[in-house]
Amino acid sequence: MSDLYTTAAIEALQPEALWRYFAHICSIPHCSGNEHALGDFICAQATAAGCAYKKDSAGNICLLVPATPGYEMAATVILQGHLDMVCEKDSECAFDFTSSGIQLVRQGEWIRANGTSLGADNGIGVAAALAAAFSPHCIHGPLEILLTLDEETGLKGAMKLDPVLLSGRILLNLDSEKTGAVCIGCAGGGRMTVRLPLHFTEPFSGHAALALRIDGLRGGHSGLNIHENRGNAVKMLAHLLASCQEIKTSLFSLAGGDKHNAIPREAMAVISLPAETVAPFRTKILRQFELLALSHPQEPSMALSVDETELKTPTIPPVVFKRILNLLLGLPSGVLAMSRDIPGLVETSCNLAAVRIQGVYLEIELMPRSSHCSGMDQVAAQINAVAELAGGDCFSEIPYPGWQPDLQSKVLQCVDAVHEKLFGFRPQREATHAGLECGIIGKKCPDIDMISFGPDITDCHSPSEKVHIPGVEKFWLLLTSVLESIAKQA
After folding, report:
1. The pairing of beta strand 361-370 with beta strand 188-189
2. 246 and 218 fall within a common domain
3. Same domain, 240 and 337
4. Whole-model pTM?
5. Distance of CA 104 to the CA centre of its chain
6. Boundaries of domain holding 217
7. In angstroms, how far is the first alpha carbon of the chain from the final one?
8. What secondary structure does DSSP assign to 295-333, as a single string?
9. 437/411 same-domain check
10. 144, 305, 395, 426 - which has most CB atoms within 10 Å?
C-alpha cells in the first residue's frame, strides 16, 4: 500500500481493520476473470490467522473461521461476497487494470477512485467479512467466509458453486449499497448477444469522413440505476445518426459501451458521406443533439463531437448501415415494467450494454433482468424477434435465478431487532432490481436463511463510484452486532 493516494485516503478512518483490508484489496488487480491474485492474498491471510480454507473446482473460496472462545455451540454464519469488480475508467485516464492497484481518494465524507471505478462493490463487503473474521474484538460463532468469483459477468462463480463448501444455514450477503435498509429479494438476469452479418464495399469517390463521439454520460449500474432514466450512449448515437438518414451515409466503425451490467457512457462512429453534405449534416446532427440534451437534464456533462477524419476502407454501405441503426433502435433498453407488489421497484428491464464490429459481424450485447421468469422470457422473445427481423442471430447464456422475499425469515427478524436497538428504528425492507448471488445460493441450498445489507455506495460500475465513510461505520456496527446477537442465542 505504498500509493500516496491510497494511504492518505484511509488515514485514521474507522474501523481501522476494515479500511486496511479494503486498501489491500484495492492494491491487487481484481477485474472479473482476474481475481486469483486477490484470492491468494486472502487465503494467505487466513493461513496466517490459523484458519483453514476450501476451494471448489470453480475457484470459489470458503474460509473456515473458529468461533470466539465460549461461543463454539452457536449456529454457523456464512458471510458472503464476491472478489471481482467492474473495471471502468474515464476515456482520458491512462490506467491499466491488469497491473495497477486502484488509487483511493478521500473527498469529504466519501472515498472514491482516481479516474476509475472504485470496486467498493464488493470490496467493502469482502473487507468487512475479513475484519470480522480476524478481529479479536468481534464476538461470533463459527463463521464461513464465502467469496465467489466472476460475479460481475453474470454471477458465474455462484452458478458453479459446489454447495458442499457450506455447512452453515444462516447467510449474510454483504453486497448491498444502502444503510438503513435490508435487502430481502432480487431480480434474475442473463446475457444475450445479437450478431448481425455484415458486408463491405470500397468507399465512394467524392466522399468525406466524419468521426462522431458522444460521451460525458453518467453511466452506472444497469440494475440499480436503470430506473433513473440515465442516458444510454449507444441508443443516443443510433438515434442521432438515424435522424440524418436522408443524407446517404456509409459506416466505417461503430463501438460503444463495455460491460454488460454497466449503462454505456460513451459511443463512437466513423462514417462517410458526400463531401458537399458535410456542412448540412453537421448542422442537423448538432441540432438533434441539442434536442436530445433537453430531454436528458440529468446528463449535464453529455457532449457530442463531430470531427473530420481520414477515409478508411472497407466501408459498410448505406443499406446495411440503415439496418444496423434500425436494429439498435428496435432493441429494448431501459425500464420495461414496474412491480405490481412493491411500489417503486422495477420488475423488468433491459440494458443495451455494448455494440462493436467483430470481423464480418456486428455484435450487440444486452442484459435483461426481471423478478419473474415470464418477464425474462418476454424480453428474450422480443430481442430474438428484432434480431431475426434484421437478419441476425441471437445467443443467450443460462440466466441466473431471482431471490424471492421470505418475510418470516429468522435472520431478518434478528437484523430488524439489532438495527432498532442500535439506531432507534427498524430498517426499511427492500428488494433490488440488481442481481445478487442469494438467488443462486438459495437454489443450491434450499433451507438456507438469507439477508443482504451494506453501506452507502453510489454510482457503482462507473468512474463516479464512491462509498460513504459514516455509512461504512454504521454497516460495520450492524454486522458485528448481528454476529454477536446470533452467537449469544446459542
Report:
1. antiparallel
2. yes
3. yes
4. 0.78
5. 19
6. 192-396
7. 40
8. T-TT-TT-EEEEEEE---SSBB-HHHHHHHHHHHHHS--
9. yes
10. 144
Q: Which residue has the cell 451515409?
A: 249
Backbone φ/ψ region at 110: left (φ over 0), alpha (ψ -120 to 50), beta? beta
Number of domains composing the chain? 2
Active site residues: 84, 151
Q: Please give the chain's pLDDT, 490 residues, in tens.
A: 335 567 789 999 999 999 999 999 999 999 999 999 999 999 999 999 999 999 999 999 999 999 999 999 999 999 999 999 999 998 788 899 999 999 999 999 999 999 999 999 999 999 999 999 999 999 999 999 999 999 998 899 999 999 999 999 999 999 999 999 999 999 999 999 999 999 999 988 899 999 999 999 999 999 989 999 999 999 999 999 999 989 899 999 999 998 888 999 999 999 999 999 999 999 999 999 999 999 999 999 999 999 999 988 899 999 999 999 999 999 999 999 998 878 889 999 999 999 999 999 999 999 999 988 899 999 999 999 999 999 999 999 888 898 988 989 999 999 999 999 999 999 999 999 988 999 999 999 999 999 999 999 999 988 999 999 999 999 999 999 999 999 999 7
Q: Are residues 60 and 139 in the same domain?
A: yes
410 and 477 in one domain? yes
Main-chain phi, psi angles of 475, to 5 degrees:
-60, -45
CA-to-CA distance for 426 and 414, rounded, in angstroms? 11
> C-alpha angle 427/119/171, rounded to 5°?
45
